[in-house]
């Protein structure tokens, strides 16, 4: 078979993925809470390398997603064209999310597509665990990578973080915590409001809020973060 290249269609990509199947890696993924029902055991590092070789192609990414294969779906996210991603497609994909890993692999695409204003409040209000996680993964990504966005665009998500901090489900509370910490580490202007929220949550009687707050305070009040935001 030829080397991966931009001319490959979805069928060729999937055929190549199947040649990379690794049973040992599949077993390892299961131990980390990854749904392995359709997994081939290919690492994200290897998939991102493959995405660079086949380049972006939105039509192909939709076909890859439709296959239902874990690796094909991650590759769909890595090789989709953000400018062509719509809220309708994002909703369709999110309805199929079945692990934290697929959420975190796709959320940055939704954010890069400029869908945050529409999807973050909508997904946060959705009671499905992995859909709600997506909202906070998008916030976390945006806080780090949308460097040209005004801080006000990032800080406006703090009330949403506070609203859902009591969700006790593991994959939600970890994403809420992640979003809060990333906002606080963005810069000095974001640090103060994020730390203040973290301190309020740390003092809460609610177990999930208290865990999120204490963990965020531990990092945001550290010397390492203080040095970072002082630069």
How do the helices and strands line up, and which of them pair or pack?
Elements: H1 10-19, H2 23-31, H3 44-54, H4 58-66, H5 70-79, H6 87-94, H7 100-112, H8 116-125, H9 129-145, H10 151-155, H11 158-164, H12 170-184, H13 188-202, H14 207-220, H15 223-230
β content, as a range? Answer: under 5%
Strands, total number: 0
Note the overall shape.
Answer: elongated
Ends: how far apart? 50 Å
Number of helices: 15
Q: pLDDT under 50 segments (min length 5)?
A: none
The helix/strand class is mainly alpha
Helical percentage: 55-70%
Order of helices and strands: HHHHHHHHHHHHHHH
Radius of gyration: 19 Å
Largest sheet properties: none
Mean pLDDT, nearest integer?
96
What does this structure look like?
This protein is mainly α. Helices cover 70% and strands 0% of the residues. It has helices at residues 10-19, 23-31, 44-54, 58-66, 70-79, 87-94, 100-112, 116-125, 129-145, 151-155, 158-164, 170-184, 188-202, 207-220, 223-230. α9 (129-145) packs parallel to α12 and α12 runs parallel beside α14. The longest helix is centred in the middle third of the chain and has 17 residues, at 129-145.
